[in-house]
């Protein structure tokens, strides 16, 4: 069973999206870990609302990339607003990222993580204004205080 570490940046909406991501991943058999070193999947849910948030998100992605380098078989996923708005540019400048998901397709994470094509051949999120409106039936992991939130 693969373990996932999630770092959420930004607004309360990102926290809600993160809880839905964790729900989708745990429903698909992934396990949550608070320790990025023991995770096979490093997931950074980014913010791009203001310039400072973009910088914080990029710094967090680069930190996660360093953790990825230290462990064989780790994958790095970038989600959220930064990925939604700038995935094409990020894919060109951050080859260490394996999967980009935006605000409209993050529930596809389990499938995207199981795909076998090389990262450069994976689809990137639609760069327009997309957002997922989940139903009440969507799995959700309430994070509370145990969750990595900055």
Molecular structure report:
The chain has 150 residues and is an alpha/beta fold. It has a single domain, classed as Methylthiotransferase, N-terminal domain (Rossmann fold, 3-Layer(aba) Sandwich), CATH 3.40.50. It has 4 helices and 5 strands, in the order βαββαβαβα. The protein has a 5-stranded parallel β-sheet with strand order 2-1-3-4-5, with helices on both faces. The longest helix has 20 residues. The model has no long low-confidence stretch (mean pLDDT 85).
Topology (elements, then pairings):
Elements: E1 3-8, H1 12-27, E2 31-32, E3 41-46, H2 51-70, E4 75-80, H3 81-93, E5 99-100, H4 109-114
Parallel strand pairs: 1-2, 1-3, 3-4, 4-5
Helix proportion range:
25-40%
Shape: globular
SSE string: EHEEHEHEH
CATH architecture: 3-Layer(aba) Sandwich
Terminal-residue CA separation: 27 Å
For this structure, the CATH topology is Rossmann fold
| Number of DSSP strand runs | 5
Structural class: alpha/beta
Classified in CATH, the superfamily is Methylthiotransferase, N-terminal domain
Tell me, rounded to a whole number, the average pLDDT: 85
Radius of gyration: 14 Å
Number of contiguous helices: 4
Main β-sheet: number of strands, strand sense, barrel status? 5 strands, parallel
Structurally, the number of domains stands at 1
Q: What proportion of the residues form beta strands (DSSP E)? A: 5-15%
Determine and state the CATH class. Answer: Alpha Beta
Main sheet strand line-up? 2-1-3-4-5
Low-confidence stretches: none
